[in-house]
């Protein structure tokens, strides 16, 4: 794994929670990070899961690992808390399992722009859900509460945007399709 030193060098920082697997989502976030670096931001990818290959990530982008395999634990909150206090980012972009930790920490520290990248439809979660319906209702309720703390949501399709509005009560004016 490539190790990159992160310094608060006066540039506005952006933290992106993602994975670095061989997937279109990982490649998309790496390309987004490169574009943001080109525009003068200091960008760090906060990755979870196995680091299969980071060769597609621009060398100017810092890569940091969450303490947990999936960023949902208290150790992940404390890790991000220290990072946010040190870097004072202008934007947090959450994705997959990092949504709760990144959104809650960003709201706590008043990070000006908190974006959730949405691509998994609630109907698919319901179809694949192996646990009780009560647990699923709690999960959906928790997602609604956390999403209220985001400044914006980015959906990867019109269906994902409609899902945010219908299933999670998200304001259409705060959601873009990219």
Write the topology of this structure.
Layout: E1 13-19, H1 24-38, E2 42-48, E3 62-65, H2 74-87, E4 91-95, H3 99-108, E5 113-118, H4 122-128, H5 133-147, E6 152-155, H6 158-168, E7 175-177
Parallel strand pairs: 1-2, 1-4, 2-3, 4-5, 5-6, 6-7
Helix pairs in contact: 2-3
Task: Describe, in plain words, how this protein is organized in 3D.
The chain is of the alpha/beta class. The protein folds into two domains: 118 residues, 3-Layer(aba) Sandwich (Rossmann fold); 58 residues, no CATH class. It is built from six helices and seven strands. Helix 2 crosses helix 3. It is globular.
Distance between the termini: 30 Å
Question: Number of helix segments?
Answer: 6
Number of spatially distinct domains: 2
Listing every helix as H and every strand as E from the N terminus to the C terminus, the arrangement reads EHEEHEHEHHEHE
Gyration radius over CA: 16 Å
The assigned structural class equals alpha/beta
